[in-house]
């Protein structure tokens, strides 16, 4: 099959694109009848072909809109029999034909030229295809001109009605069957576009319960905030600084992203807080992150693994026994050493602080001095361990020394403490 045969097939194929039909009509004048008969040819091209008043094109247009058995007798007689093309001889070189765009034929998407009917194009070549322009007519043959104009009016009416029918068929069969060709048809149709059902925008899918949406800073943002903490801290609120550590641990748990690097960073920042804010402040942050109330195991393990030997003990208890609960030999003073130091005098002759009944309890925190804490009285054990006179007990940041006259307890970081006995108490 030759290239010319392929072009002829495309000129008659209803699936041929509009741009290709336009190109065939412009560059292959001998195939214009096939283009005119093609049911997919758009109305503007049909009108331009009709204006050429070519007998073969007119016959194709008549067959397009009126089947052979419905043609008027006069029209069928007027259409000459097309001469068969020789099979063996090559196609003659066609005469140069004018460009369809210059002649006024519009492709889908082109803007309609202004005043196309009031100011028609004129050309000495009677073969120019122009929308709105009529070929030169014989002034002595008005009847022939009237017939041609009548046929063109019929063609134009049909060309306008056919797209409307096609739009209805497209809606019935589904726009997807025609692909991209349905869009130009809707744009070129002079009739109002059919009402289409608006599609509501799809709602964004909600996160599945297995993967809850994470709000707040990312792991990297939380890591950066912790790294900047030593420079940003006010050294006045240990709990607030501890929250910066906990945020990184929380994001690490949620995103399964906690690493050894985060553990090392947490230890480094605690030590940096010691340099910036002092030992008592850093010790309190240390307790919040690794003590009984710690919420994140990975963080608690990392910070708690540091131990307490790296703190600067200004008032160490040399040679002390490690003890958590004990009593004086008399049993009248009982103490607990943990995150804070608490000692209770069961019977005493001194005036009890306000709110203290049935003994008086004092508390020393790692970052605060001695003060009454009767709302949390120390309960004596049935058989407590005894801290004999002359012995010292220590646990973490606190220590106590037992004397015949009193029990003396203090903070090993700051030296703040209290002396307790049945007759007096003194804070130092």
Automatic annotation (TrEMBL):
Protein name: Leucine rich repeat variant domain-containing protein
Residue ranges occupied by any Leucine rich repeat variant domain in the UniProt entry: 6-64
Keyword Chaperone: no
Organism: Nesterenkonia xinjiangensis
Acidic residues biased stretches: 80-100, 200-214
Keyword Transmembrane attached: yes
InterPro entries noted in UniProt: LRV_2 (IPR057893)
Keywords: Membrane, Transmembrane, Transmembrane helix
Compositionally biased residues, Low complexity: 182-199
Composition bias, Basic and acidic residues: 114-125
Disordered: annotated span: 70-148, 182-217
Segments passing through the bilayer: 155-178
């Amino acid at each position: 099959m030759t290239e010319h045969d392929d072009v002829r097939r495309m000129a008659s194929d209803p699936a041929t694109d509009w741009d290709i039909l336009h190109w065939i009509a412009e560059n292959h004048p001998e195939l214009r009848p096939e283009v005119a008969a093609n049911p997919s040819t758009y109305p503007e091209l049909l009108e331009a072909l009709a204006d050429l008043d070519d007998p073969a094109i007119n016959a194709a247009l008549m067959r397009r809109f009126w089947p052979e058995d419905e043609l008027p007798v006069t029209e069928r007689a007027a259409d000459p029999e097309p001469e068969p093309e020789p099979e063996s001889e090559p196609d003659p070189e066609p005469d140069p034909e004018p460009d369809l765009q210059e002649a006024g034929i519009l492709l889908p998407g082109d803007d309609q030229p202004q005043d196309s009917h009031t100011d028609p194009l004129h050309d000495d070549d009677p073969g120019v295809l122009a929308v709105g322009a009529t070929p030169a007519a014989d002034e002595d043959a008005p009847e022939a001109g009237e017939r041609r104009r009548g046929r063109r009016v019929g063609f134009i009416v049909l060309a306008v009605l056919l797209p409307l029918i096609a739009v209805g068929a497209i809606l019935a069969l589904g726009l997807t069957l025609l692909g991209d060709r349905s869009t130009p048809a809707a744009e070129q149709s002079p009739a109002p576009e059919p009402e289409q059902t608006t599609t509501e925008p799809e709602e964004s899918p909600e996160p599945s319960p297995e993967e809850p949406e994470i709000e707040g800073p990312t792991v990297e943002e939380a890591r950066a905030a912790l790294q900047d903490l030593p420079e940003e801290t006010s050294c006045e609120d240990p709990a607030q600084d501890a929250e910066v550590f906990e945020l990184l641990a929380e994001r690490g748990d949620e995103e399964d992203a906690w690493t050894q690097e985060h553990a090392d960073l947490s230890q480094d920042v605690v030590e940096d807080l010691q340099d910036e804010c002092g030992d008592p402040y850093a010790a309190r942050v240390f307790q919040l992150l690794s003590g009984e109330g710690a919420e994140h195991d990975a963080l608690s393990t990392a910070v708690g693994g540091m131990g307490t030997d790296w703190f600067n003990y200004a008032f160490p208890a040399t040679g002390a026994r490690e003890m958590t609960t004990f009593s004086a030999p008399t049993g009248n003073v009982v103490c607990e050493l943990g995150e804070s130091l608490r000692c209770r005098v069961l019977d005493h002759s001194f005036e009890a602080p306000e709110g203290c009944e049935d003994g008086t309890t004092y508390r020393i925190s790692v970052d605060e001095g001695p003060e009454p804490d009767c709302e949390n009285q120390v309960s004596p054990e049935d058989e407590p361990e005894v801290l004999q006179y002359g012995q010292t007990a220590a646990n973490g940041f606190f220590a106590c020394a037992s004397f015949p006259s009193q029990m003396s307890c203090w903070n090993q970081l700051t030296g703040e403490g209290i002396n307790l006995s049945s007759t007096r108490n003194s804070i130092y």
